[in-house]
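From the methods appendix. Each design record in this collection lists the tokenized structure first, followed by the designed amino acid sequence. Records were kept in a plain field format so they could be parsed without special tools. The example shown here is representative of the layout used throughout.

RECORD:
FOLD TOKENS (141 positions):
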């Protein structure tokens, strides 16, 4: 037997394997990109909704008894579900349901601070969102 002019089928197999591998990798990249794009779009939509909701949140606060009691008025369009009180770098969260145009007193029992910050927290799709840009600073003196 002479094998001088016999080329075999290895080049054909290598091309088939190369094209098959390229198709598999391209489909994996496509699925990954589609999933990533959907996640980014959902996150962006939630962020836009959060910003829009917080833009319509507005509160005012008055203190009595050196910040032992704070009366918070909801002047915005959405209910306030909680408030965060910040003083001296410390955050305290209080459950306080305040509907639009209503107010509610909040007993803090803190003393010795010149001012406190009141941050409204509203609910979007069962998730609590603190509207930091709607923070109100109140003097305790």
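DESIGN:
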């Amino acid at each position: 037997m002479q094998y001088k002019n016999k080329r075999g089928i290895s080049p054909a197999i290598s091309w088939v394997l190369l094209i098959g591998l390229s198709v598999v990798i391209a489909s994996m990249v496509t699925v990954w990109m589609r999933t990533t794009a959907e996640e980014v779009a959902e996150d962006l939509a939630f962020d836009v909704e959060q910003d829009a909701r917080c833009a319509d949140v507005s509160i005012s606060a008055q203190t009595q008894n050196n910040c032992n009691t704070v009366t918070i008025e909801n002047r915005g369009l959405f209910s306030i579900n909680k408030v965060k009180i910040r003083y001296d770098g410390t955050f305290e969260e209080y459950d306080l349901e305040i509907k639009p145009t209503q107010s509610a007193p909040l007993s803090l029992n803190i003393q010795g601070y010149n001012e406190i910050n009141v941050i409204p927290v509203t609910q979007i799709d069962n998730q609590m969102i603190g509207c930091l840009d709607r923070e109100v600073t109140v003097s305790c003196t």
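APPENDIX NOTE: Residues 87 and 116 are 5 Å apart (CA to CA).
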